[in-house]
């Protein structure tokens, strides 16, 4: 079986392990800095195997030597923003964690494809690429799959139709400046711009942009993990099964969309080697402007990192 490592056995990491095991995409190694946590959750998941009929092996560890030979590594390690903590504080703490995690991936799983989930996503994915030194095609982040999943869910609710027929497209950074693209969002091939008035679309776009915050406000003590884990599982599956699906992902741009040396959400083709193609959509002036705004935000995050060393 393919080997998938998940670093960070918290809400997103453990639920991703569960989804991967239930779909038998591969064997799972769950790691965390907290002793006992990955071991306990892994054992619990292993014991669910006979009940749900999956043969994936799941092991928990605090030792990076166990990630050797991983085909895919998913990074969910990090901390969430706590009351009183600024975005910059969070950026600093998670950069430290992600740097340490990346050094271990470089050392122990040098041939893996790495998918980042930790926020702030676009900046953390950049840190992973720079620290591991891996080719950019095998370092990318989970953002657009989640954001377009949320957009699709809201469209299905609005139209009273099946989520299966919806194909949503969201570009840009994973945050307030993401760029949902109604023109490229379809229901059985029909763009939603032909199915709903502009005011309705704008309302659904706003809800999508604030999708993460809506969940945090409800949960109060945590952030979303069911949809994020589903999104990253889809990406892991595309890589492991070499499906060549076209999905939005946080990818390294080297001239595409007129941008260089930055990670940003764009549609990509995903297979065994990671990103095999970046798909460049023909954007309108307004869509381009929104993507530029998004890129500016990500870039200022990256430069604040460089400035603080
Ligand atoms: N190495 C390994 N694991 C670590 C490290 C580290 N250096 N530092 C923290 N962790 C672990 C924590 O012990 C915790 O178990 O990362 C886990 C994070 O889990 P949660 O706090 O439950 O966070 P979660 O909701 O899973 O979100 C993880 O994904 O969607 C993003 O914004 C979210 O950045 C956050 C990440």
Keyword list:
2 domains, alpha/beta, six-stranded parallel beta sheet, three-stranded antiparallel beta sheet, 309 residues, Rossmann fold, binds adenosine-5-diphosphoribose
Write the layout of secondary structure elements.
Layout: E1 3-7, H1 11-22, E2 27-31, H2 37-52, E3 58-61, E4 72-75, H3 87-108, E5 113-116, H4 121-132, E6 139-141, H5 144-159, E7 166-167, E8 170-171, E9 179-180, E10 186-187, E11 190-191, H6 198-209, H7 211-219, H8 226-240, E12 245-254, E13 260-271, E14 274-278, H9 285-308
Parallel strand pairs: 1-2, 1-4, 2-3, 4-5, 5-6
Antiparallel strand pairs: 7-10, 8-9, 10-11, 12-13, 13-14
Helix pairs in contact: 1-2, 1-8, 3-4, 5-6, 5-8
The structure holds adenosine-5-diphosphoribose.
Adenosine-5-diphosphoribose binds at residues 7-13, 32-34, 37, 76-78, 80, 97, 100-101, 117-119, 222-223, 225, 228.
Please give a structural write-up.
The protein is an alpha/beta fold and 309 residues long. The protein folds into two domains: 3-141, 3-Layer(aba) Sandwich (Rossmann fold); 144-308, Alpha-Beta Complex (L-2-Hydroxyisocaproate Dehydrogenase, Chain A, domain 2). The protein is built from nine helices and 14 strands. The strands form four sheets. The protein has a six-stranded parallel sheet with strand order 3-2-1-4-5-6, with helices on both faces. It has a three-stranded antiparallel sheet with strand order 7-10-11, covered by helices on one side. A three-stranded antiparallel sheet has the order 12-13-14. α3 runs parallel beside α4 (121-132), α5 (144-159) crosses α6 (198-209) and α5 (144-159) crosses α8. It is globular, with a radius of gyration of 19 Å. It starts with a strand and ends with a helix. The mean pLDDT is 96. The structure holds adenosine-5-diphosphoribose. Adenosine-5-diphosphoribose (APR) binds at residues 7-13, 32-34, 37, 76-78, 80, 97, 100-101, 117-119, 222-223, 225, 228.
């Amino acid at each position: 079986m393919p080997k998938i490592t998940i670093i960070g056995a918290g809400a997103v990491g453990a639920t991703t392990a569960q989804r991967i095991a239930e779909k038998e995409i591969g064997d799972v190694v769950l790691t965390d800095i907290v002793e006992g946590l990955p071991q306990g959750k892994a054992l619990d998941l292993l014991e669910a195997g006979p009940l749900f009929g999956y043969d994936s092996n799941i092991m928990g560890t605090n030792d990076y030597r166990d990630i050797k030979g991983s085909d895919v590594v998913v990074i969910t390690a990090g901390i969430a923003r706590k009351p009183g903590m600024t975005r910059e504080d969070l950026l600093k703490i998670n950069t430290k964690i992600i740097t340490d995690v990346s050094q271990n991936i470089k050392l122990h799983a040098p041939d893996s494809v790495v998918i980042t989930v930790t926020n702030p996503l676009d900046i953390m994915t950049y840190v992973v690429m720079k620290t591991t030194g891996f080719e950019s095609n095998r370092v990318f982040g989970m953002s657009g799959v989640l954001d377009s999943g949320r957009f699709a869910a809201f469209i299905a609710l609005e139209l009273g139709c099946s989520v299966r027929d919806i194909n949503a497209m969201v570009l840009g950074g994973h945050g307030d400046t993401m760029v949902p693209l109604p023109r490229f969002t379809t229901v059985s091939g029909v763009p939603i711009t032909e199915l709903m008035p502009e005011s309705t679309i704008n309302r659904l776009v706003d809800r999508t942009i604030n999708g993460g915050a809506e969940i945090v406000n409800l949960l109060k003590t945590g952030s979303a993990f069911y949809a994020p884990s589903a999104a990253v599982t889809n990406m892991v599956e595309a890589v492991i099964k070499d499906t060549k699906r076209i999905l939005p992902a946080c990818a390294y741009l080297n001239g595409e969309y007129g941008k260089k040396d930055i990670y940003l959400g764009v549609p990509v083709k995903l297979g065994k080697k990671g990103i095999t193609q970046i798909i460049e959509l023909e954007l309108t002036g307004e869509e381009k402007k929104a993507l530029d705004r998004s890129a500016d935000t990500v870039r200022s995050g990256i430069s604040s990192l460089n400035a603080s060393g």
